[in-house]
Design brief:
Number of strands: 9
Shape: globular
CATH class: Alpha Beta
Number of helices: 10
Strand content: 15-25%
CATH architecture: Alpha-Beta Barrel
Helix content: 40-55%
Mean pLDDT: 97
Radius of gyration: 16 Å
CATH topology: TIM Barrel
Number of domains: 1
CATH superfamily: Aldolase class I
Order of helices and strands: HEHEHEHEHEEHEHEHEHH
Structural class: alpha/beta
Length: about 210
């Protein structure tokens, strides 16, 4: 399936966990992606929080065309354009502005905008977006908040991200309005700095079986 024919709903249902990756050193990008893919997590979110993030997306896509490699921390139309130029298969934002929503929709790229209130969900729905990132999940009310959204906004489907761990992920995944979760516990800075690819592979394999 090409990235243009793949919807954000398809991506959210590919695996129970989307690793949220902050890559500080370019030489770690490919071995990190390999460990996660071998562990069974084919959807990767590379956050645009480091100077090498955009190049890391390109390297991962070149090495593993079968992976679904997205850009996270896209906060405006400039970073959206940069992510698209890098070849990102999907876009994740911590929030959403009308300008970013319009630009993302016009680009046709699968887009997961961040929300954490009923008004933000309703704004996304007005733009025709039903797949949403609930962020920062734990700080914004966690499972209780997602349960509260379900009755008045049943059409919204969430990927909670922010403060979720291997221990808390199953409870999120059990909610009917949650398709997957985002997390970094299987690829922490400590593991990456230590080049503990086997450790990352093991944690990824456990995450892949959560749902």
């Amino acid at each position: 399936m090409s990235s243009m024919s793949r919807t954000i709903h398809d991506i959210m249902h590919t695996a129970p966990v989307i690793p949220v990756l902050t890559i500080e050193r370019l030489d770690t990008a490919v071995p990190l992606a390999r460990a996660l893919l071998e562990g069974g997590l084919p959807v990767l979110e590379i956050t645009l929080r480091t100077p090498v993030a955009l190049e890391a997306i390109g390297r991962i896509k070149a090495a593993f065309p079968q992976a679904i490699t997205g850009a996270g921390t896209v906060i405006d139309t400039r970073t959206l354009d940069q992510a698209l130029a890098a070849g990102a298969d999907f876009i994740v934002s911590p929030g959403a502005t009308p300008a970013l929503l319009k630009a993302a929709l016009q680009s046709g790229v699968p887009f997961l905008p961040g929300v954490n209130s009923p008004s933000e969900i309703m704004q996304a729905l007005d733009y025709g977006l039903q797949a949403l990132k609930f962020f920062p999940a734990e700080a914004a009310g966690g499972i209780a908040m997602l349960k509260a959204f379900a009755a008045p906004l049943p059409q919204a489907l969430f990927c909670p991200t922010g403060g979720i761990s291997a221990a808390t992920a199953p409870a999120y995944l059990a909610l009917p309005n949650v398709a997957c979760v985002g997390g970094s516990w299987m690829a922490t800075p400590t593991l990456i700095d230590a080049a503990d690819w086997q450790g990352i592979r093991t944690l990824a394999a456990a995450a892949a079986t959560l749902k």
